[in-house]
Write a structure and sequence with these properties.
The protein is an alpha+beta fold and 192 residues long. The chain has four helices and 13 strands. It has a single domain, classed as Sulfite Oxidase, Chain A, domain 2, CATH 3.90.420.10.
Length: 192
């Protein structure tokens, strides 16, 4: 007597169903397909400075964007990029809450509680840059960007969707720990 758990006539339907579910889960988990739009992104960014401002994702998209080509490398030397990057300069976001000066620094926080601190000089582009062979190279300055697009498409979940820090230069690499994912807060803090 054949078990009803495995019916060879229904096996192709079972495989098709499982494959469809896996593809759907992957698409949802990675931010959708390459033709996905930003309209469905429900995200808020809190800016704290002289005042507190909360921006939704649409308001961030409405700001003047900045584009460039850069990438990063991990602590074990794995090179990622360079990528074509689009986003909003962090200094523009700081200006919405009073700006940042030399006696202050900026703390960027993510939903997973990871945070990174950037000095005034770093906010103004003072970073060491490298080529894809990881040799130090000259660069005219880096622009810190709140990235929402990489290589012409929205960020996927594993790449930090919907907002990630990117250090944008002229086809250079920087250290990957600065490229914080899933950003939801920017604070301007004083050394005092």
């Amino acid at each position: 007597m054949r078990s009803r758990l495995y019916d060879h006539r229904r096996f192709p339907l079972f495989v098709l169903t499982v494959a469809t579910l896996i593809i759907y889960a992957f698409a949802v988990g990675c931010g959708g397909s390459s033709d996905s739009t930003y309209k469905d992104i429900n995200w808020q960014l809190t800016l704290v400075g002289d005042e507190e401002v909360v921006l939704n994702f649409s308001e961030i998209l409405d700001m003047t964007s900045y584009s460039g080509t850069s990438g990063f490398f991990t602590s074990v030397g794995i090179v990622n990029g360079p990528f074509d990057i689009k986003g909003v300069p962090l200094l523009d976001l700081c200006d919405l809450v009073g700006g940042v000066n030399q006696s202050e620094y900026v703390r960027i926080s993510a939903i997973d509680n990871y945070s990174m601190v950037f000095s005034y000089d770093q906010m103004n582009g003072d970073f060491i840059t490298y080529n894809t062979s990881l040799h130090e190279v000259e660069n005219e300055g880096i622009v810190l960007v709140l990235m929402y697009e990489m290589d012409g498409v929205p960020l996927t979940q594993d790449l930090g969707s919907p907002l990630r820090i990117a250090l944008v230069g002229d086809n250079v690499l920087t250290e990957g720990h600065n490229w914080v994912k899933w950003i939801n807060k920017l604070e301007i803090l004083s050394f005092d």
